[in-house]
Design goal:
Blueprint (H helix, E strand, L loop, with lengths): L7 H26 L3 H22 L15 H11 L9 H17 L11 H9 L2 H16 L10 H16 L14 H5 L4 H7 L3 E4 L1 H10 L7 E5 L5 H15 L5 E6 L12 H10 L11 H14 L2 E5 L12 H4 L1 H9 L2 E5 H8 L11 H5 L10 E6 L11 H10 L12 E6 L3
Parallel strand pairs: 1-7, 2-3, 2-5, 3-4, 5-6
Antiparallel strand pairs: 6-7
Helix pairs in contact: 1-2, 2-4, 6-11, 7-11
């Protein structure tokens, strides 16, 4: 199966170079604000090193082995580069190239004295989150009114209403990397109580090109008697998407679907906006701020409720080095067997976002009608891992479409394969690993 590629030259020369320039600017801005002379002096060397990476990208230089920065993963990175063979920024496999770029950034920071734990993308993440004010306040309102204050998640309501609520909350997590909530069903309390929301749910799901939501619900209902139901969520972006993921985790706990939820973060800044451990507290600092979110009516109820889940241990975070390697998830069993075993023992493993989807499917240009189970490889049939992918389509890879006829229809509706790239279509793909 060939690896998926974006327009390599455009990606390398434009987007990657722009990301590196952003790190140069960020270090300069932070250094200008800092009173520590040694830290400020060291920032100059870091900016020069970042600029060298940018030049290498722009001039399509060969990728070179990573220099030792004291971290145990350097040897694995260099082995993978050697296995690929001689390649440049443009000619290398796209996914490896982008992962390598972020590891280069971190190597420079790791080799410093004063900047080792610095989040090079925090300023950008914070700025983006604050722009999602209306969506955050709206979701806080809906959660407190529909889920928390009414007991709708518990046994007081009909099974069909619970199913609709699950679909709605799952869609909130699915579309969480966009602050436009117009794609949601927007169920009201009355919709759920009188079972009037079916049509709204169906309408909101028309852009989900592989929708296994019914299968997920059937699995959860069939196994609801299990004593331990830990759900793992492998996170994608910080900010608004992290807010929707924490909200989704709270719903899974409030509804009694999960007995605990574990959020998987990256160990260091990755793909600009991916969640790292410090982003969790940063999320709460923003939610507590009346300057960021002035409409406090529902946030003042919701935020302590979310904090309590963390304080009680029902909601926890973890990081594994595997998430910041160049390997696809097909290689997890060989490269991170302990993590693989943890996910086998998980009640449900939810993978968020585009990068995780690329890694789940080995970044392969599968025919779109390929089954999700086949594309998962070692995480599919007989793996014992219950894998749910929630992903809006933003790049070339997409599997699980029911038929070629459906693919043709989508190509008519969104010419030029726009339905796999424009972020307006999505997948809710589930495999039980049996």
């Amino acid at each position: 199966m060939p690896s998926a590629t974006m327009n390599a030259q455009e990606t390398a020369e434009t987007r990657w170079a722009k990301i590196i320039q952003g790190t140069v600017d960020d270090i300069g801005e932070t250094a200008a604000e800092d009173v520590d002379d040694q830290k400020r002096a060291e920032s100059i060397a870091i900016q020069i090193a970042f600029k060298d990476v940018k030049k290498a990208i722009e001039h399509n230089k060969a990728l070179t082995p990573l220099q030792d920065d004291g971290k145990p993963d350097v040897e694995e990175w260099n082995k993978r580069l050697a296995a690929i063979g001689e390649c440049s920024w443009i000619s290398c496999p796209w996914l490896f190239g982008e992962c390598y770029m972020y590891r280069c950034i971190q190597r420079i920071l790791n080799s410093s004295r004063h900047w080792q734990n610095y989040d090079i993308f925090k300023r950008q993440k914070d700025s983006t989150f604050v722009k999602s004010r209306a969506a955050v306040e709206e979701l806080a309102s809906r959660y407190m009114q529909i889920v928390a204050d009414t007991g709708l998640a518990q046994n007081e309501i009909k099974e069909e209403a619970k199913k609709m609520l699950f679909a709605e909350m799952t869609e909130i997590a699915l579309w969480g990397n966009a602050t436009d909530l117009s794609l949601l069903a927007n169920l009201t309390l009355e919709d759920l109580q009188n079972l009037q929301g079916r049509e709204a749910i169906q309408k909101s799901q028309r852009n989900i090109v592989d929708n296994d939501g019914v299968d997920v619900w059937a699995y959860l209902q069939r196994t609801a008697g299990q004593a331990s139901r830990q759900i793992d969520i492998v996170l994608d972006n910080a900010g608004f998407e992290l807010f929707t993921d924490v909200l989704y985790a709270a719903y899974l706990l409030d509804a009694g679907i999960a007995t605990s939820v574990r959020l998987h973060t990256k160990e260091f800044p990755w793909f600009v906006s991916d969640v790292i451990p410090s982003d969790i507290e940063s999320l709460f600092e923003h939610l507590d701020s009346s300057e960021c979110f002035p409409d406090r009516e529902y946030l003042i109820q919701l935020v302590p409720r979310l904090r309590k889940f963390f304080q009680s241990g029902a909601l926890t975070t973890t990081s594994d080095p595997f998430w910041t390697t160049p390997f696809s998830l097909h290689e997890m069993l060989a490269k991170a067997p302990a993590l693989f075993k943890e996910l086998q023992n998980s009640y449900l493993a939810i993978f968020k976002g585009d990068l995780n989807y690329h890694k789940l499917t080995r970044d392969g240009l599968w025919p779109h009608t390929t089954t999700y189970e086949e594309a998962l490889g070692p995480l599919g049939k007989h793996s014992g891992v219950k894998v749910l992918a929630l992903r809006t389509n933003k790049s070339d890879v997409c599997v699980g479409v029911s038929s070629q006829r459906q693919v043709d229809k989508l190509n008519e509706e969104a010419p030029g394969g726009a339905w796999i790239k424009n972020g307006k279509y999505a997948v809710v793909s589930f495999n039980e690993g049996q």
